Amino acid sequence: MSRLQRGLQRLKQSKQTAEPHIDNHKDQVSETYNNNNVISSSPSSHLPLSSLQKQEQKEDWSALQAAWYPYESTGFVRRIKKFPLHTTFGQYMLQQFLIEAAALTELIQQKQKHTPEASEATTQISSQAAVEATVSTAAETKTESDVAPSTVQYDQLLFFDSETTGLGMGTGNIPFLIGMGYVDVEHDAFVVEQLFMRNPSEENAMLRYVKHKMSAYPHWVSYNGKSFDWPLIKNRFVLHRIQWEDSTLHHFDFLHPSRSLWKRILPTCRLQHVEQMKLGIEREGDVPGSMAPQLYFQYLAEKDNTLLQGVFEHNEQDIVSLVLLAIHLCQAVQGKLDITAMRAEEIFQLGQWFIRIGKEDDAHELMQYVYELHDHEQRNSEVTGISLPLAAYFKKKNKLHEAVQLWKVHIQQEQQRTLKSVEPYIELAKYYEHKTKSLDVALYYAEQAKQTFVATVNMTANRNKEKKTLEAVNHRIQRLRHKLGGAQ
Amino acid sequence: MNPIQAKYKHIHSFIQHLQSQPSFMENVTHWHVQPAKPAQTVNVPEALHSDIRKALKEKGMEQLYTHQATAFQAVEKGNHIVVVTPTASGKTMCYNLPVLHSIMKNDQHRALYIFPTKALAQDQLASMQQMIDQMEVDIRTHTYDGDTPPTIREKIRSAGHIVVTNPDMLHAAILPHHTKWVKLFENLKYIVIDEVHTYRGVFGSHVANVIRRLKRICAFYGSNPQFICASATIANPKEHGERLIGEQVTLIHNNGAPSGEKHFVFYNPPVVNQQLGVRRSSVLETKKIATMLLENEIQTIVFARSRVRVEILLTYLQDIIKRKIGNKTIRGYRGGYLPKQRREIEKGLRTGEIQGVVSTNALELGIDIGQLQACVMNGYPGTIASTHQQAGRAGRRHESSLTIMVASSNPLDQHVIQHPSFFFETAPEEARIDPDNLHIIIDHVKCAAYELPFEQGETFGEESLEEVLDFLVEEQTLHRVQNKVYWMSQSFPAHNISLRLAAQENVVIIDLSEGSKVIGEVDRFSAPTLVHEEAIYLHEGVQFQVEKLDYEEKKAYVRQVDVDYFTDASLAVQFKVLHTDQHQQMERVERSFGEVTVNAQPTIFKKIRLRTHENIGSGPIHLPEEEMHTSAYWIAFSSALVTSLSVQWEQALLGLSNVFGHIVPVFLMCDRFDIRVVPQVKAVHTDQPTIFFYDRYPGGIGLSAKLYHIHDDIMIQAKSLIQSCPCESGCPACVGVREEVGSTGKQDALQLLDELL
What we know:
The complex is a heterodimer of chains A (488) and B (757). By secondary structure, chain A is of the alpha+beta class. Chain A has helices at 3-18, 24-39, 48-57, 95-100, 105-123, 128-146, 203-214, 225-239, 255-262, 271-278, 292-302, 309-333, 344-356, 360-373, 387-396, 400-414, 423-435, 439-456, 464-487, and strands at residues 66-71, 74-84, 88-89, 92-93, 157-164, 175-184, 189-196, 219-222, 250-253. Chain A starts with a helix and ends with a helix. Chain B starts with a helix and ends with a helix. The relative contact order of chain B is 0.09. The chains are: A alpha+beta (488), B alpha/beta (757).
């Protein structure tokens, strides 16, 4: 016995003694593999597997409404589910997607305008997440500038989502289930097609099928697919040495608009949260995505495909939710959402999103609407959290009357608090100094700014930005005093 | 007169001054002068790309040193090479020339440079960039490490001609994401590995496996890169290079670089107690010599063997120098300092703002700290190779230089200082790695499977992988389908595997004196003896007492104190023999090599007064026992011998172990913490008096195995060391002090040795 073999034996022993409570499932597994081991001392040990595989091909997947799908020389498991277009989920009917889809075109234009800015923003962050983000934005820039934004058509969109064996972006994280959804006009249905590999030897066939399917659609829709699912799938293509030039395709990642709209309103922007809160969808008995890897590993060990029922359903619902979210976003972009039912914060975010996608006029209407609310007896409190950014908006639009109102509202609201913002005082000081030339009022606000600053900012922190702010305030006070003194 | 000439004259006259001082010279056991060596050059090869030749010419390099030209030709022939040359001999040309040449010929070609540390990588990049700028060509070189800004990473991955990185980054960031590096891997022509001598022991064994993975990825993308390695002087550069990269290599060692006159002085502190053989403390003598150099404004590096020594010397020197040349110009440098601090010190040394530095072997590596004029070693660095490296820090730019080695009273130092030929005539040590260590190979097979599935019959190094793969399949980390084995787990294996023992399992040291601030770190193996509760931890010359060691969370909380002692902890060790690989039964002694379980438990610590080094108290250490499987070499004395030999067994074994503990690392070229020697009067396994040597790394890294084979050499050295020691009955320079080994310790140890020879 070699040193390596002895070492291995001891390792196994120590593992066994370390884990005396092996559950049933593990017992079975180790038994299976022990049998394997007996054979595996000869080089021909793995031959029986091929016959095993033939057996597997006959494996019954009907319980999952799926079936073995031979493709190229091998194959994989495929599950196809068709939803009639008149099916309703939560507040929307699938049919609506056909009517609204064209509005997605506006989202493409948005990207062209704003990508450079977005990538600049990410350079400020030095986290690993930012690395990936930057990379994907860089890729995006290239993709989108090449494509002229022709009108998006409902039958050109492919929705996709994958379930993977782990987290992270490394080459060992494998998407084992890839779900794709599209409209089938002939059959008046929305089709969810799910591809599943029973083991990694089926991946190649599955990927070739994915390529065949996806390249037929110029527009893709995903949720966080730009920084997760798609780069992972691309990894797989590289690993299988399958060439694919994807630069002519356009990828909508709905996580981005969802974040723009709801980051401040929803506790998280996970799809499950968004669909529940915004689309009125309740999942029952959902198997969370985080369970998928474990269930897949268990399936690999036990070959019991019923274990995967929940994983297939979860993935299917994700894809259906994506279509519904598409309808919702299309309605939003066209200004079809009922804003009277929304809180000020949400309307404001919608306005901000409009600005970002270049719908300035529509945005202004919304902002004006939110502004009116500050005077509304029941609803004025809703404006509290956004009065400063809203004021900044009006200042930028040179609507100073509104801006001044909002700064004052903000000061009013904060009166009882210990931690106050300095910003409205500074802004008001500027306004009265330069616009109305009321120097004494300006001095009042400047001094208030200084007081507030000293009371709230921990000077020992000695942060540069704060230091600069304080210097600027002091400078302003001096100048105002000087001007006032000169006038007297 | 330019400042360099001024300095030259200065150090020259200082050397003369020193030689005229009887009080200094009477302690000098050997004064070695290595004469200046002229350059050996050849014409720049015609085959070299004309732009590069032009750039060399502009740089004033009409000729190449012989080794640079040979390296270029060997690489052109398609050989993997290992270049062995001393510090400052222009070895970077050996790899930059062929790499630039290749890229100039074909813009698609790529090269990957690997340096052991980030600092070295940045240094090398700067010098290479200079060359490229001179050539006025568009060759893009970048470092790719933890400090690389995310914004340029993508660009480096797709467009960098030369990517400069370190093994850790390769292991945890590049290889597991190889699909993003398609362009590099498809076109990779050269892999440059500098400082290969540092890749030894556990770290080297890990790196050898990372290289196996790298080659696997290259093969996948259809490239078959050539390796260009460079090493400091070791005994087995060719063999070591071959084990590290798993390929045949051509050795290049015709160094043609010139060097200045080098003075190497062996200094043995005077005996202060003839009877006990006690010499004046080497720390105090080092302090005296360093002070003299620093006061004469000679930029000096002081090497000490442990962190504690560094801190003690730093405290002394700062204290003395403060008044004369201003504080802050003497700095410490060692592993536990934070990177930012280290960069600052390196820069200060280059600019000359820092007059002196006290360092552990951390500064032995090729980090650019510019040219120092003198080097003082507090104690023999432990290996010949290391000594050459440390001495090379003085006089890098062909001027006269001075290296003074101050011997401590430990046996090895005394042996070396009294036998200068040992140092000047013996070949330097071998670098050893064991890439097939089970624990290490399992770690890397996991990472490799994550990167690419294993095919049936695929090799990974020498041993067959089937069993390791089967084991991991059984563990459900890998999944076998038909003829392939796939990674099948949620985790990212490289994150849990650290190439450097210290890096991952560090215990962070948090100073609570003012708020809470991280001031340093120690590796997990050293933590029980360095930062146990009540230990005195020294950092930048300041004393801290450990208030609490959170062993689970790997945090030690310390508070600044001012006391006149330091602490020294002891460890109790138990062995269980698991398997005997090799065994030799001699008449009255048996010796074996095999696998053991070691249980180590820190027991007590002693408080030792600074300066006088007397024991002034002790206390218990409450920490969990650590268990480890590793390899060991053990020598057992037969029961017949126990009755027939009239020795004090306990003391005799201890004395002999003390001697072994000091000399064994020399033969193994390892850190003295890598191997331990433990005597047992009645070992559980043998039931007889036994001395164990074991590798302090799970699974062993081949140190004990080597000992089994070089047994005789060690015994001969040990005997000569004890015999040549002038003390009466044992002293720190041989078997240990009388209090420890008794009045017959020396004779007893010699008696045992006679049985072992």
